[in-house]
Amino acid sequence: MKVLRTAALAAGTAGVVWWVRRRGRTDDRPDRPLAVTVHRPYDELVEELGRPDPAALRGVGADAQLELTPAPGSFGTEVRLRTTSRHGSRAQARQGLRAMKQVLETGATMPPDRAVTRRPTLTSLPLEIAIRRAGTGGRL
Amino acid sequence: MRALQWVGVNRLEVGTVPDPAIEHPQDVVVRVRRTVTCGSDLHLLGGYIPFMRSGDVLGHEFVGEVVEVGPEVQRHAVGDRVVVSSFIACGRCWYCTRELYSLCDNGNRNPAITETLWGSAPGGCFGYSHAMGGYAGSHAEYVRVPFADVGAFTVPEGVDDARALFASDSAATGWMGADLGDVGPGSTVAVWGAGAVGQMAAAAAVLRGAERVVVVDRLDDRLEMVRTHVGCETLHDQRDDVGPALLEMTAGRGPDVCIEAVGMEASGGPVEDVVDRVKQQLRLQTDRPSAVRRAIYHCRKGGTVVVLGVFAALTDGFPLGALMNKGLTLRSAQMHGQRYIPGLLDLMARDELVTEHLGTHVMSLEDGPRGYDLFKRKADGCVRAVFVPGAAPTT
């Protein structure tokens, strides 16, 4: 039973990783801008991002071409980034955009805790792949 | 420092890990005075939520003392005794400003995992896998508390650790159940599950003035605890005919609000149970939702079902027909602790909300694996095992 459980667990984890990767690929259209909504007023954001070398843009690059529009209702401001080759992968650009949102909303990015991994397990390899990609989300 | 670590499916060990430090200007570091097991930890322990690394520190419900303060923290100082919300929220994003703290946009550092599973990422949680941010848990001597001005609350002088501890998660979750169900005077409420969260949901319903509150479970010692400490009625899931009993209580209507407080490892009827368990073991479904099925089935037409138990992803046999045709409202959330904890601490200070009876087994952190074993088997009347870091082990 234990072997069955472990095999099922490993298969399930591998399935999740496959799903993450497959779904990730569907977003690989370079013509589609990456977008986040920042909970700050539009005017405030235009002013802050217009200053020289704003801290919030360190993840996406100070010369990033961002399109700002007021979000509907009380959501704040929609920020769109059209990626180019200098942004690296779209995943990196998305991570940068997410970091930008964090800085604009909270003042800083949240660093990871130090890993205290003791030993690899059967499920740890696909899990490591999932965790490596895990910071790149950004549907906000 | 010493910490209780997940090292594999159904395997825990107490080991030595690096001390936490201030990593972000809004952090504090807390010396843990008490930390408690939670039923949702069992899903991690059993591998049902497969996003734990060997060595990850468990625990998300705790009370402690601030020992280090980040430069931007304004509400806390070294020496403060604090209870901390299990969910980590920034306090500034759109969701936080609407008090939907467990949906925080900035609390989860690993959003891609849950975005893939669920479409969007909820906030982060202490000690609750890399899917929920990969934060170190509270079953340790010290823990880093991000966004401390938002998530840590000073415990009033007259509230001791044994009581305050449960404001961190279980009391807040239970209160949220009654709040999402809009429970008030005149409501009839049925709660499935007499664990800590179910008991706190029932207590919340009583405190909010519900007309009648009944808790359903199959463990006699827990039902006795509900009658003694919460002061409401109980039904035994197997010995009592729950459906007819609820109809009799409500003169044929059914409860206005049905609160599920069991989660993804619920046990149902014999056949249902076997089918659900086989599907779960084979990963054809991740969750066993028998308590949700019952809550939906027994709720009155037009009533509200609140799901408080933790579920991972997919389930079969969900009674969508009953939900739709009876015009039910289904509500749920991970716990918006920051919304409820201040009020709960006030209730605790006035002795209107008592929680200390939930900590049935108080032991050293070094006894953590034994505590989880008791808790998982519900042995020796264990409702919650409470760990005291630094206390002498008994084994």
Q: Helix segment count of chain A?
A: 4
CATH-scheme architecture of the largest domain in chain B = Alpha-Beta Complex
Shape of chain A: elongated
- How many domains, in number, for the residues of chain B? 2
Give the CATH superfamily of the largest domain in chain B.
Answer: Medium-chain alcohol dehydrogenases, catalytic domain
Helix content of chain B: 25-40%
Biggest β-sheet of chain B: count, sense, barrel? 7 strands, mixed
State Rg of chain B: 20 Å
**Alpha carbon gyration radius of chain A:** 18 Å
Q: Tell me the structural class of chain B.
A: alpha/beta
Beta-strand share of residues of chain A: 5-15%
The top level CATH class name of the largest domain in chain B: Alpha Beta
Low-confidence stretches of chain B: none
Based on secondary structure, the structural category of chain A is mainly alpha
Number of strands of chain B: 18
Q: Under CATH, the topology of the largest domain in chain B is which?
A: Quinone Oxidoreductase, Chain A, domain 1
Task: Calculate the mean pLDDT score of chain B and round it.
Answer: 95
Mean pLDDT of chain A: 78
* Oligomeric grouping of the chains: heterodimer
Give the tally of β-strands of chain A: 3
The fraction of residues in strands of chain B falls at: 15-25%
What descriptors fit this protein?
A: mainly alpha; B: 395 residues; Quinone Oxidoreductase, Chain A, domain 1; Rossmann fold; six-stranded parallel β-sheet; globular
Describe it for me?
- The complex is a heterodimer of chains A (140) and B (395).
- With 140 residues, chain A is mainly alpha-helical.
- Chain A has a domain of 89 residues.
- In chain A, 44% of the residues lie in helices and 11% in strands.
- Chain A has a 3-stranded antiparallel β-sheet, with helices on one face.
- In chain A, β2 and β3 form a beta hairpin.
- In chain A, α1 packs parallel to α4.
- The N and C termini of chain A lie far apart (41 Å).
- The mean pLDDT of chain A is 78.
- Chain B has 395 residues and is of the alpha/beta class.
- Chain B has 2 domains: 222 residues, Medium-chain alcohol dehydrogenases, catalytic domain (Quinone Oxidoreductase, Chain A, domain 1), CATH 3.90.180; 159 residues, NAD(P)-binding Rossmann-like Domain (Rossmann fold, 3-Layer(aba) Sandwich), CATH 3.40.50.
- Helices cover 30% and strands 22% of the residues of chain B.
- Chain B is built from 14 helices and 18 strands.
- In chain B, strands 3, 5, 6, 9, 10, 17 and 18 form a 7-stranded mixed β-sheet that branches. Chain B has a 6-stranded parallel β-sheet with strand order 13-12-11-14-15-16, sandwiched between helices.
- In chain B, α7 links the parallel β11 and β12.
- The longest helix of chain B has 13 residues.
